[in-house]
Design goal:
single chain, 247 residues, mainly alpha, 5 helices, 4 strands
Length: 247
């Protein structure tokens, strides 16, 4: 393939712009904010699950406490009625009197047991309330961190995308000055060689594969016409000669 030396030099300019675009794409993909957001969102999801469980426990213990307090109230009312009957003197039969007194004593014990249950449930309910409040604060704090990280990421992405757009426009302009067949070859090689399709020959070394040309290869390069499009024998990239090639 033939191409004017100036066109080959411009191909290096296209390569430089493509390299910059690849760097920007890598920078966009590997921003630390991505991992930070992912970690924070995982923590946030876990905290929200814990908060739901804690609020469920808070609701359950509230109902349990209300039921236990209702049981205490029923026993208390029944004991009060029995005590009123006992105090009224309306029960005169010794056997009935003894039964009534026994029931009052039994109710007193039952009330004490139920009040112990109320206290135990109340303690669990208060603990659940405190836990839910703590988790709600932690959820809010982590959510704020997520929002901050997202804001920083979005700002960084916006800057990278703006620079990429500028570089892409410049690339389109420069690529438009390169002969179509040369550009097509470059694109094909670039796709095959990890994004680098053209490399400068600098001080007898290919900057694509970083290998120095041997004496036979150098002689072939020296003997080639200026408009001959050369390929590196090692990496097969377009090898562009410049005044710094060391020939």
């Amino acid at each position: 393939m033939k191409a004017a030396p100036a066109d080959q030099i411009r191909l290096l300019d296209v390569q430089a712009l493509d390299t910059r675009l690849a760097q920007l794409a890598h920078k966009r993909k590997s921003m630390p904010e991505h991992e930070e957001i992912q970690t924070l969102e995982a923590d946030l999801a876990q905290l929200r699950d814990l908060l739901v469980a804690s609020r469920t426990e808070e609701s359950d213990t509230a109902r349990e406490q209300a039921k236990a307090e209702g049981d205490v109230d029923q026993v208390r009312q029944r004991a009060a009625r029995d005590q009123k009957r006992l105090d009224s003197g309306s029960v005169t039969n010794p056997k009935d009197l003894e039964s009534l007194q026994s029931e009052i004593a039994s109710l007193a014990k039952r009330q004490g047991d139920l009040e112990d249950i109320v206290l135990e449930v109340m303690e669990r309910h208060e603990a659940a309330q405190e836990r839910a409040a703590e988790l709600a604060q932690r959820v809010e704090a982590v959510q704020a961190k997520v929002e901050d990280a997202v804001s920083r990421r979005d700002a960084a992405v916006e800057g990278i995308d703006a620079e990429s757009a500028t570089v892409r426009k410049e690339r389109d302009v420069v690529a438009g000055t390169v002969p179509g067949d040369l550009l097509k070859l470059y694109e094909k090689i670039r796709e095959q060689q990890g994004g680098v399709g053209a490399a400068r020959l600098f001080q007898r070394r290919c900057e694509g594969c970083r290998l120095e040309l041997n004496i036979t290869e150098l002689n072939d390069v020296r003997g080639a016409a200026e408009d001959e499009v050369l390929r590196c024998e090692n990496c097969r990239r377009v090898l562009v000669r410049t005044p710094e090639s060391g020939l």
